[in-house]
Amino acid sequence: MALSRGGVAAAWAAVGAQPPETVVRVPWALRLRLQRGAERRRRGQGEEAAAAPPHGKLLLRSRRPELSQPRWQTVGRWERPQLVSAGWKHRKACGDYFQLEPSQEAAPALQAPPPDAGQGPRFADMGLQPALLVGLEGLAVGRPTAVQRLAIPALRRGRSALCAAETGSGKTLAYLLPLLDRLLSRPEGPAEAAAGPASPRGLVVLPSRELAAQVGAVAAALCRPAGLQVRGLTGGGAAGGLRRQLRAPPPGAALLLGTPGALREALRRRFLVLERLRWLVLDEADALMDESFAGPLEEVLAHAPLAAGAPGLVGPAEARTQVVVVGATFPAGLSEMLGKFTNVGRFVTLTTRSLHRLPPHVQQKFVRLKGRDKLPELLQLLKERPASQGAILIFCNSASTVNWLGYILDDHKIKHLRLQGQMSAVARAGIFASFQKGDVSVLVCTDLASRGLDTSGVQLVVNYDFPDTLPDYLHRVGRVGRVGSKAPGAVVSFVTHRWDVDLVRKIETAARKRTGLPGMDSSINNHPSKGG
């Protein structure tokens, strides 16, 4: 017969004895869990008094202080660091964040060369033509940056090259100065400027009309004292527009800057020939390798005299085309595409030390959010930030998101501009120029605005949509802290999707180990020749 709890106690009392103590058996797994919880509570109580547990300045600041990393701490190459973003794929991680703190004040490109580098600290020491030095004075350019010290001597010797450097480091002058110098050292004869199709001696291929206009303005300022003429060729209009651009007075431009589609159309219609081409630049190479540009670009390369012009020193009677490929990131397949037209194995590779590394002078914050929380976070950020703190770039991954977000900002009376690739040429014309002038301080855009454009007035980049790739992240973060910027600026990234977290973990790991971002060196490291 079963006894109740009270009945058991009465039975022990009847025999004059005390009941034994009740024993509760706790399962082993539960006991371990309770012990771990107690240890965490003890650690938390001990660390509460120290809000920033690591002593000294921080490399990475976390919402959870125990995961912050001080600057002095070094993570070994094979060591697996404890990541803030390790658990970010779980929905309970929403609201968590971490921040990469600036570890230096100036951009790496502005750091002085080592004493034994043997590279002149001034443009005047590089043997450039006097007229170009006058043009540099007009641009108010001071000392050369790291990539300019590296590239100008090599390119002046006529070397074809892959030139890779971090965003905002001054790559435009790094290729324009030596190539314009070579044009001036070999002036064209009167017969070469005869009437007929445009026949430039220098060609710069760029992925967007905005970038072509920007580089064209720099080239024109350099060429003006030297008496060289510059032309721009961009599409978006009728064939007559291409003819007018090429024939605009004065005729016989030595330098042409154009987009792949416009150049292909001009070549097909015989408005343009490349028989006299002596140097060719492919700027923002990764963007030019996009599927929308690859076909037109290959057709342009097929018209250029590249096969007979292997890279090397140029003699007085040799008709060789010097090829320079420029970018902050190089895509896979670049060498294979160029190899159809020229001997890529003889290119020299010029790379800076900071290539593919996170900018150490720019604050970068990563916030884990639910998708529905991104808009309130952005609106609060825009409304709390005073206009005196500089311009803002807001990146989205699609044209439709740019348009939708623009309508929301209109509703909230936030003045802004929009820029995305699906706009007509007429609509796009002047938008970025107006933003650069400071007429409007907020630009909502796609990655169209992340490549090469001068954004020295931008102080904040917001990744409303987290970028799809690590190269895209590097290009976006490179919109702040550029050579010529008044302040290093900051980047705020909203992290919402599980695939976003995968990229954030790679970024956080690279930051903690102070290494370059993974998987981005293959197209350069596979190159047979190294320089600099």
Protein architecture, described:
- The chain has 532 residues and is of the alpha/beta class.
- The radius of gyration is 30 Å and the shape is globular.
- The strands form 2 sheets. The protein has a 9-stranded mixed sheet with strand order 2-1-3-11-16-15-12-14-13. Strands 6-7-5-8-9-4-10 form a 7-stranded parallel sheet.
- 34% of the residues lie in helices and 13% in strands.
- It has 2 domains: 204 residues, 3-Layer(aba) Sandwich (Rossmann fold), CATH 3.40.50.300; 247 residues, P-loop containing nucleotide triphosphate hydrolases (Rossmann fold), CATH 3.40.50.300.
Global morphology: globular
Class from secondary-structure proportions: alpha/beta
| CATH architecture descriptor of the largest domain | 3-Layer(aba) Sandwich
Strand segment count: 16
What is the end-to-end distance? 94 Å
Q: What would CATH call the class of the largest domain? A: Alpha Beta
Query: In CATH, what is the homologous superfamily of the largest domain?
Result: P-loop containing nucleotide triphosphate hydrolases
What number of domains?
Answer: 2
